[in-house]
From TrEMBL, chains A, B:
One of its GO terms (molecular function) is 5,6-dimethylbenzimidazole synthase activity. This is 5,6-dimethylbenzimidazole synthase. It comes from the Bacteria. Keywords: Oxidoreductase. Pfam families: Nitroreductase.
Length: 222, 222
């Protein structure tokens, strides 16, 4: 694996300057949830390298509960797409009629084109971490995995790849399609590849679905 | 607010080079869950700026469900500490006896020293995003908030601050202490301040509690 924390241990704590912070802000701003992918394959080892970086994420009690399942089998991919289509139809029916048409036009899945698909699970049964921090808030296991996904996402964007996170899926169905251990819980299903275009504004915002709000509205004092 | 996506919209998609990726890797590696804080106050506006950056996180359906509660009232802080102590005692009792002593010596909370404390909630009742992506996986609301916390964490570290995420708390008790709306669900309680020392290896690893595993163990193929 390219990323071995032990390789880097001898180094001094880094200082981060304004130029890095500016670029980090660009990365966070331009991350995007990608829906439109080119079909080009990723370079060899890219996925493994990105997962290595994702594994630097924090986890409750150092439990590292993330499990990355690379979905390559065409039949399983087709079954996941069917699951998405069924859930998407249901979601469409649940929308206000005035929004339903708009919703239908949002092409939400890169499931057809992305060369790489990764189902990411939380292993609720892991004994790594010895249960530390999980007694009162067991959901921190899933939060750790969500954060690892985001780490993967940022690392991918920094290398010029794009990620789309599909949540319009039935977790139990995906679990069955992929035949993973019972204790694993689906956190996210990711499409990974080269984006067709780089956009700064979220797709949902560009299409008039929703817009970002002012930060003042989410800060409270007690 | 310092961060206004509209201010940056005219710019071109950024390219990230190897030097930035190297520093990003340093940031991810040196992030650390900080437990030992100096008592120095943060500069004015730092918290608001960091929350502005955190709000660049992705969220399901652009719902932006994060709610940041700055906890400054001494009585409320004391009540949160009492909640931590009660939960910590319970966690201690739940540990294997051979580990209990080690656990007790892990000073898990910066709740005494950190100048800034932030309770972060997910607003499950928000209608922002119109429910998009939440029908089959409603827990994506909490995942969005966990990711915003991590964004705050990275931005803080890039400015030389440290964050400690306390999960040994009873969410209902903290909810009551802070008198927040019923629909809000606690995702994390954060200590923020200047770290006493910068460490690359996780505290739990240094103290022999748990160690990172090889990435090969978390990659599967289907």
């Amino acid at each position: 694996m390219a990323i071995e924390p032990t390789d880097r241990e001898a180094s001094q704590p880094p200082e981060f300057g304004p130029a890095f912070r500016e670029q980090l802000l660009d990365l966070l701003t331009w991350r995007r949830d990608v829906r439109h992918f080119k079909r080009d394959k990723l370079p060899d080892e890219a996925v493994e390298r990105l997962i290595g970086i994702a594994s630097l994420a924090p986890s409750v009690g150092l439990s590292e509960p993330w499990r990355f399942v690379l979905v390559d089998d065409p039949e399983r991919r087709a079954a996941v797409r069917s699951c998405f289509e069924a859930c998407n139809a249901e979601a469409l029916a649940a929308q206000d009629p005035s929004r339903a048409d708009q919703y239908a036009r949002l092409k939400l899945a890169g499931l057809h084109d992305a060369p790489c698909q990764i189902a990411v699970f939380a292993d609720r049964g892991t004994d790594q971490g010895h249960g530390l921090g999980r007694l009162t808030m067991p959901e921190t296991i899933e939060y750790s995995v969500a954060i690892a996904i985001y780490t993967l996402w940022l690392a991918a964007r920094a290398e010029g790849f794009g990620i789309g996170w599909v949540s319009i899926l039935d977790p139990d169905t995906v679990h069955a399609i992929l035949e993973v251990p019972e204790d694993w819980h689906l956190v996210g299903y990711l499409c990974l590849g080269y984006p067709q275009n780089a956009e700064e504004t979220p797709l949902l915002q560009r299409q008039g679905w929703e817009s970002r709000r002012d930060t003042e509205n989410v800060i409270f004092r007690r």
